[in-house]
Structures are given as structure tokens and as C-alpha cells.
Amino acid sequence: MLKRCILLFLLLTIAGCSSNRFFYNRLDFLVPWYLGDYVSLEREQRELLDRELADFLDWHQREELPAYHALLGQARGALEDTLTMEEVDLLAVDLQQALDRLQWRALEWLLPLGASLNEAQVGEFLLALREQQSEYEEKYLERDAEQYRVDACESLDDNVRRFIGRLDATQKERLHTACGELMRSDHLWLASRATWIEELERTLQREPGWQQRLRDSLATRDERLPAGYREAWAHNRQVMQAAVVDVINQRSERQDQHLARELTRLQADLVALSEVLPVNPAG
User: Fold this and answer.
1) DSSP string spanning 177-208?
2) Predicted TM-score (pTM) of this structure
3) pLDDT digits (tens, 9 = 90+) for 122-147
4) Helix 186-203 vs helix 227-249: angle between axes, to the nearest 10 degrees?
């Protein structure tokens, strides 16, 4: 749930879509509905969520959106000349730090709600996670190596094309070559996720000190991932970044203009979102 909430905020905040401003200012209505996919909240719990969410969004608007804007400025500066892997690595570090800040703040925002859940709601939440786990296993593990490569290529192609426009044959081939070099790790990720759900179930028995145990679990989760998964993740990130750097450096004048427009629009959205009034749960 925490990961999906974080992704929701990221998508609505830095997706570069002109509807960002509309959705961002309505998260107080959207998030309770979204959490309803996992657990049925009572009226008092929704009110609690509204109060906590208002503080969360106020922090996010004041501190995080300007940081995203600055990060985009760094990216635009790097694109003024030939883009290097070193520059991409530095941007990736800043992005990871932003994700970490968001993750920790989101956890603190959700803890009061977790404390308010009754046993039936906790059971409902865990059941939803297990059902989602089964869906993921069916979706990802039944793929053969070729389908895995096709899915990876489609995702990578879509993401790159969104920012620089239609790709030429050479650029497509570079991305497809990278996809062929990827190490498959979905089975390791799903095994780790299943272990995490079991750990979360024990934590949500909510014996004294459970909040700190949840914080500690989150803080050390990456360290406890299987070594094979960490190796595959590092390898795949290197492969993907190298391919994207090559494609961007091969961009045509038309693609360069497309990229500049996307970044300008995204920065304008972030500025506008930073200046809007905090979300009012009373609405």
C-alpha cells in the first residue's frame, strides 16, 4: 500500500501532464478512495486520514515540489551538451533521495491510520495484499524469456518516446539491444514481497513498539533483499541508463525541440503546483 501511494503521488506530481494541477488539488478526495482498494474505512477514519493528508500535502507542496523543479533544472543543464553517465548517476542519486524523503513522510502519515484499524480491517488489508501478490505472480511469472523482453522493450520505448517523440530505427535498435541484456529478477522480487507481507502481518498485530518496528523494517528492507535481486537491479539500471543516454545523445533537432517542450511544461506545472493553496479536506 505504501509503495502504491508513493507512486500515486509521484505520477500525479511529476508526470508532466497538463491535468496535474487538477488532480493534485483533489488528492484529499482521491486518496481515501484509493485506499479503499485495500481496506474499508469508517467515517472517523476517513476524517483522520483527511487531517493527516492535509499536513502531508502541505509539506509536499512547500518542500518537495521546489526540489523536483530544481532537479529538472539540473537535467536541462546536463542536456545542453553531450549527456554523460556521470551526470545521469548524479541525477539518479538526487531522485532517490527525493523518493526516500517521500517514503518516510508517507509512512509517518499512514501510521495513525494503521493504529485506528480494527482486527477485521487489518485482516481485510492483508487479504488484499495476498490477492495482489497472486495477481502479480500470475501476471509476471507465467511469462517466458521472450515475453519478458518484449514487455521490457515496450515499457522502455514508451517512456523514452514520451519525452523525445518518435524514435528512428537506430534509436529503437539501441533500446532493443539493451532489453536483450537485462537480467530477469521478477521471481526474486515476488519472493521478497511475499516475505515482506508475512513480516508485515506480524508487525500489524500491533504489540507495543510496533510503529518503530515498522520504521526499522522499512529502513533495512533494501539490505535484506536477496543478493541476486540487488545484483540484477544494479545491472539493469546500468544497462537502461546507458541506452537512454545513447538515444538522447542521438536525438534529432525535432526530438530536441520535443524534449525541451516537455521539460518546460513539466517545470511550469511544478511551479504552479507549488504556488497553489494547501488542500482543504473540508473542501
Assistant:
1) HHHHTPPP-HHHHHHHHHHHHHHHHHHTT--T
2) 0.80
3) 999 999 999 999 999 999 999 998 99
4) 120
